[in-house]
Structure formats: C-alpha cells, structure tokens
Amino acid sequence: MTVLRGADPATVRRAVDRGDPLPGTAGFAGALDGRLVRDVLGRYPLFGTPDDWGFTPDATAGSSVPAGHVRERRNGETVDRRVWSLPDPPAATDDTAAVAAVERAVRDAVTGVDDRADLAVAFSGGIDSALVAAGVPDAPCYVVGFPDAHDVAAARDAATTMGRELRVVELDHDAIERAVPEVVAATGRTDAMTVAIALPLYLVAERVAADGFGRLALGQGADELFGGYAKVVDPADDDRVEATTVRGATREVIGSLPAQLERDTLVLRAAGVTPVTPLLTDRVVEAALPLPGHLLATPERRKVALRRAAAGWLPDPVVDADKKAVQYGSLVSRELDRLARQAGFKRRMDRHVDQYVASLVDAD
Question: In terms of pTM, does the model score above 0.90?
Fold first, then answer.
C-alpha cells in the first residue's frame, strides 16, 4: 500500500533510490511499497510500523519514524535505515551570488503557495512571517498574544506598513488554562517549554479554523536555516551549542527541526488547520546551507542573508524588525509562570510550571 503526504510516489521512490535528500518537495512522509518513509527534515510526522502506522501518535502504538529514515521489516524485525542526510556543502565565496540564490528561492517558495480562499497567515511582524504574507497578498494575517505582547504591537505596525488586514487573537488566562490539556493531548508532553511554544500556535490556529480557514501559512524554519538564534552568534562562548563556528552552530540548530516540526504540526492539526511552511521547501534549504557565517549571524545582525534578500521587497522597518520566540513574543511563557505561582506552584519548587501543567491535565 502506498499512502503519502507531501509528494507523489514516483518522486519519493527516486529520492530513495538515489539517496537524494532534497528532491524538490516541501517534505513528505507515509507508506511506500510496504515501508515507511520520512523526509530528511521531518516536515511531516509519522508513527508506527509498516503494518500499523499513522500520521498522529494516537493512531498507532508505534514510535515516531526518525527524519531521513525508512522504517521497514527485515527478517521479521522492524528496523530503521537512514536513507537521507542533510547536504553539507562548502561555504559560498561569492556573497552577492549567495544572497541572490536565497532571494530567488524564497520568492519562488512564498509566491508559489496555493492562495485559495482557505488560507490565512500567522503573522508576528517579523521578517519570516512578513515574507510569507508578501507571497499571498490576499490572505488575512493573524497575530496571537496577550494585550501588551511584543508580537501584537509589532504585527500591528508591520501590517499597517504593508497595508495588510490583521486579526488579533487576544489571549487571557481562561484561554490558557482551557487549552493546556488540549495541547498536552496533541503533543503527549507536559514540559513547560513544549507547552509554552505550542499554546500560542494552538490558540491562533483554533481561531483561524473557527473563522473558516483550513490552512495556516507560517514562517517556520527561517530562524534555524538562516541564523536567527542568539546562540549561533558567538558559539565558542555559548554553552547552549557544542559547535564553535557560526556555520557549525547553525547546522546544529537545523538538527533540532524534526522534533520542533513534529510538535508544531501535531498541535496545528489538532486545532483544525493544515500548516503551510514555504520557507522549509527544499529549494530554500538548498540556498541556505552554503551560506558563510557572516551571512548568517554577526554580533550586529542575525539572518543577514535573508534580510538582504528581502530588501526592496518588504518595507525597511519590517526587514529590520526584532523578533522574539513565540512563547515570549506572545507573553504566554510569562503568563503560564504567573498562573503556576497563583495556583501555589512557587518558583522555588522543582520545575514548578511543569507541575502546574500536569495539574491542569489531571483536573481535565
């Protein structure tokens, strides 16, 4: 039986036969000729065995298929075999050509999104989501956060500058407490970091679905591919990464994508929408991998090549806008901590927010 998401069977068969990790798709996963396959970045979650599998963890008792692997039966045993590894090209030496390649890839990716009427955009006012929004000019933009959140203010400013419709999903404590058990059910995890990241995604997607949209376009992947994290700026002095170079640290961060994408995709689907992630298409990945360190992140600027590529297309204030991680930009992390303390889970307690999350799940 062959059931695939994200790509047609012929493309995936060729990718398996040739060991081609980036065959021109936006990711794929599913059953192919009696085995399970999941693309090199894990852009589609996949669980189970060749005999009992599904796209959600509750569809089967089996574990997640690792990104870049085929899961198959051999001699009566289920085994995982790595088929694809992310390319490791040498650093580009022509900055102009490297930035031009990024610009072409990103423009093609975002303007190539199917812009049917069922599409909305998750919009924080940063360059990643602004690029996605620019590719689908008729799609409404949604931002999520507490009233005084950075992302809400930044999105309003950016939407005004870009002349875009913005819908604000304003959060309160009741919404957080209601959604926590639903996020835990979707992800299977109760740790504070997972829940804090997943909550704003779930709540904005829930509103998008309620408004009648079936797909949500996001800027996922840009921070990992293009040097958006503070920890890649000076990795030799940052104990959050093992690498000592900007390129090495960026590569290390890219390696975290499969787990992140699995979490986010499961949460968004549980809320009723299908995620669309144009900045994670193979062509964009191919353009990002050769970037030298100084086109990724410097002490003065992060996502250097991506910002240069966006200049002239996006307004300057949007190109240069600061971006916070969604759990901080929406203030969900802050308010989750506040709710935990109000419920008696003080900061002196070990993993106090985790304990609070578990209490909400138990009470549900």
Answer: yes
